[in-house]
Design goal:
The chain is mostly helical and 96 residues long. It contains two helices and no strands. It has helices at residues 2-38, 44-62. The protein is elongated and about 80 Å long.
Length: 96
Amino acid sequence: MNDNEKKSGDWKLIVGGIALIVVLFIGIKFIFWGLDQAIPKPPADVSQSVSASQSVSDASTGGEEAPSFCVHCGKALPDSFQWGQFCPYCGEKNEQ
C-alpha cells in the first residue's frame, strides 16, 4: 500500500511542477508587458535616419566638410573626424 501511495503522489508532484513553471512563465511575460507599457519608447530610429540623410546631403554640398555619421555603420562620429580617416566604431575608411 505504501508503494501505491508513493506512485500516486509522484504524478501529482510532476503536474504541480509543470503548472508552477507555466504560471511563472506567464507571470514573467505579464511583468515585461507591463514594463513595456509603462516605459515610453523614444523615436530614436526616425531622428537618426533623418539627421543622417541631412548630414550626408549637407556634406556633399559643403565640399570638404567632415561627416557627422559613418557611411558604413551609421554611428555618430566625433567633431574632429575628417574625410579619409577610419571609423572608430567599425574600422572602415570613410572616403568622400
